[in-house]
Design a protein that fits this description.
- The chain is α+β, with helices and mostly antiparallel strands.
- Helices cover about 45% and strands about 15% of the residues.
- It contains 18 helices and eleven strands.
- It has a six-stranded mixed sheet with strand order 1-2-6-3-5-4, sandwiched between helices.
- Helix 1 packs across helix 16 (about 445-460), helix 14 packs across helix 18 and helix 15 (about 425-440) runs antiparallel to helix 17 (about 465-475).
- The protein is globular and about 70 Å long.
- The two termini are about 40 Å apart.
Length: about 500
């Protein structure tokens, strides 16, 4: 399962731009939006698990999204990437699903985990014995091969697919982990049985093989990907203390040393009812669904929520620049620190993103791509999370023979002009129209709605909050945009990352 691919695919289902989720919830207005009036039924179990049930009987299907409020910001050096690894492992089955002989599996688990402990001890020496390391790795592989004879491969997926499941997947972000699927409505109870079993009785079989899969994913997405390398280097330069600077997929040295016991203990602590929100949207009977929720989940121990992230990124006091050398076309990333989504300035920052790159008439797209033709593409976004001060990021790819320096200068010139003049009322009105259209479109997808309900509840404590964002965004004025430009988009607050083509012979 992909840490990024599934979430990107869901962006299309949500049909609303990312910036719509990047603004703070306003105070309750007297006049509610259509989304706020949806007949969502809220249930909180005795163990703290929250369910949001929205009946929509137009088609005989139902969408399920489980969001655990734990992601890469909750990790520390030594266990980075653990949430993403768990995303993979939770499809490996349970004590009853995916095995022919659980006791035999567990005997082999104990042997391979002991060999892994020895391997870490050898690896930690000042001068580790490479031959001994190779022998221990070979023993772990042989034991895992033996354990595989008891595995019923992909049985969790097979059971759901045989009942008509679509889109079974998961994704990990900086602040949450999601598991989601769509089922025929007459198979809805199967989800409760399977998900409760997975929450209570997961078995992390094929652990070392799957850990290698994640390591390979990192190689593919980061270490051999020019865009991945640039993104990671940019965040690391911008965030010197806050965990937003640590990649969701984790660092390679941590991925390669995570142990089954460490991962299982982390799972037991945080992937539990007290930290879970479930959104169910589709052709469901509310009372029956609520009974299933209580019957299958209420006896599971509540677990714990992660401790608060206390790290605060120090105020940046000068431009930072980082260069990544790679045999690929040049790329540019510019970032400025901006507030979290709860700040009063967040709506204006979100509107600014749409003004700059939201469509062919946007300021940067029109200037860099259509008018000056110095860039093939330009995008803007805020991230990598929502709860803590974010980075407003502009990504651009130059068109040869133009350089990243030319594109960078053009971006600064466009921002300076916008700061001096302020956006026109016509530009702001176009943004308002896009927001209004997105507010309607987001109601069309059951899966998109389920994601929105879960995300809004986890982030704001209220499923209605994200719907209220539309009115807050529509209230942004040209003066608000000009204010955030002057406050945050200054030289000493920016971090620039440039991808440059290296010498194929290795010379600089």
């Amino acid at each position: 399962m992909s840490a990024a691919g599934g979430f990107r695919a869901l962006a299309a289902a949500l049909t609303a731009t990312a910036v719509l989720h990047a603004a703070a919830p306003p105070a309750v207005h007297a006049q509610s939006t259509p989304g706020e009036r949806l007949p969502v039924h809220e249930i909180t179990l005795a163990n703290g698990m929250r369910f949001l049930i929205l009946p929509r009987p137009s088609a005989p299907t139902v969408s399920f999204v489980v969001e655990f409020g734990v992601g890469s910001v909750n990790e520390h050096l030594g266990i980075t990437g653990i949430a993403h690894l768990l995303e993979h492992l939770l499809f490996k089955g349970t004590t009853t699903i995916g095995t022919r002989d659980l006791a035999a599996e567990r005997r082999l688990f104990a042997l391979m985990d002991a060999a892994h402990d020895t391997l870490l001890g050898v690896r930690g020496r000042i001068r580790p014995d490479s031959a001994e390391l190779a022998r221990l790795r070979s023993r772990i592989r042989a034991l895992e091969d033996s354990a595989r004879t008891f595995v019923v491969s992909n049985e969790f997926d097979r059971i759901l697919s045989a009942s008509g499941a679509q889109g079974l997947n998961a994704t990990t972000t900086a602040e949450s982990t999601y598991y989601f699927v769509e089922l025929p409505s007459n198979r809805a109870e199967l989800w409760f049985a399977m998900e409760a079993d997975r929450m209570r009785n997961p078995v992390f079989r094929e652990f070392y093989t799957e850990r290698d899969v994640v390591a390979e994913e990192r190689r593919m997405r980061v270490e051999t990907s020019p865009g991945g390398l640039l993104y990671e280097a940019h965040l690391a330069a911008a965030y010197t203390m806050h965990p937003y600077g640590v990649p969701v997929i984790g660092y390679m040295s941590d991925i390669q040393t995570l142990s089954r016991r460490t991962v299982e203990a982390y799972y037991r602590r945080y992937y539990a009812p007290a930290n879970a929100v479930v959104a169910i949207v589709g052709d469901v009977d509310v009372e029956r669904t609520a009974r299933w929720a209580r019957s299958y989940f209420e006896q599971i121990p509540r677990g714990a929520t992660p401790p608060p992230v206390l790290a605060r990124e120090p105020l940046q006091k000068g431009e930072r620049r980082v260069e990544v050398v790679f045999d690929a076309e040049p790329q540019l990333r510019i970032g400025w620190h901006v507030p979290d989504v709860f700040d009063d300035d967040a709506p204006a920052v979100a509107v600014l993103s749409t003004l700059l790159t939201g469509g062919r008439t946007s300021r940067l797209y029109h200037r860099l791509v259509e008018e000056d033709r110095v860039a093939a593409s330009v995008f803007s976004s805020t991230g990598p999370g929502s709860r803590y001060p974010q980075l407003f990021q502009i990504d651009a790819t130059p068109v040869a023979p133009h350089t990243t320096t030319e594109v960078e200068d053009a971006v600064y010139q466009a921002l300076a002009e916008l700061t001096a003049e302020g956006p026109s009322e016509a530009e702001i009105e176009r943004v308002r129209n896009r927001i209004a259209a997105a507010s309607v479109r987001r109601l069309q997808s059951n899966l998109g709605l389920a994601f929105q309900l879960a995300e809004s509840t986890t982030l704001y404590g209220d499923w209605r909050a994200t719907f209220r964002l539309s009115s807050r965004l529509r209230a942004v004025t040209p003066a608000d945009v000009e204010r955030v430009l002057r406050r945050y988009f200054i030289r000493e607050n920016r971090t620039v990352a440039v991808l440059t083509r290296g010498d194929p012979e290795g010379h600089r």
